[in-house]
Amino acid sequence: MRYHYEPPKIYLSMYGEIYMCDHPVYSQCTLYKIGEKGLAVIQQRYDPATKRTWWSEIDHCITDDLYLREGFKEYFDKYAKEPVNDIYPTVTLRQIMWALKMKPVKREVWETAFDHTPI
């Protein structure tokens, strides 16, 4: 039995786009946009050589699984808004996977977390 999200061997990323902005936490994210409203999703990264972490776009293999998941549209409608100063409401990958009742990506020891509200 799988306890964590396992990326498919073959995937096509059709939903979500890489979006660059001047957010205080990240400089690029995966943006889901419907009409004028959008929701940014970020995932934490780690460089073992420098032991540095940062937030950026989510893995391409997950973008379609999130968008096509039952409940995504309701979650999007609840949190998505029009941008303010080119910044959209933001959630972490773990927050949206938890809300959509998806198996989470494997948690690493270096990960940090935000509370359960949008960033």
Lay out the secondary structure.
Elements: E1 17-20, E2 28-34, E3 37-47, E4 52-56, H1 60-68, H2 72-79, E5 90-92, H3 93-99
Parallel strand pairs: 3-5
Antiparallel strand pairs: 1-2, 2-3, 3-4
Tally of strands: 5
Order of helices and strands: EEEEHHEH
Q: What structural class do the secondary elements suggest?
A: alpha+beta
Distance between the termini: 33 Å
Outline the low-pLDDT stretches: none
Q: How much helix is in the residues?
A: 10-25%
Regarding quaternary structure, what we see is: single chain
Rg calc: 14 Å
Anisotropy-based shape: globular
Could you report the average pLDDT, rounded to the nearest whole number? Answer: 90
Strand content: 25-35%
Largest sheet: 5 strands, mixed
Total DSSP helices: 3
Question: What does this 3D model show about the protein?
Answer:
The chain is α+β, with helices and mostly antiparallel strands. It has a domain of 83 residues. Helix content is 20%, strand content 25%. The protein contains three helices and five strands. Strands 1, 2, 3, 4 and 5 form a five-stranded mixed β-sheet that branches. Strand 3 and strand 4 form a beta hairpin. The longest helix is centred in the middle third of the chain and has 9 residues. The termini are far apart. The model has no long low-confidence stretch (mean pLDDT 90).
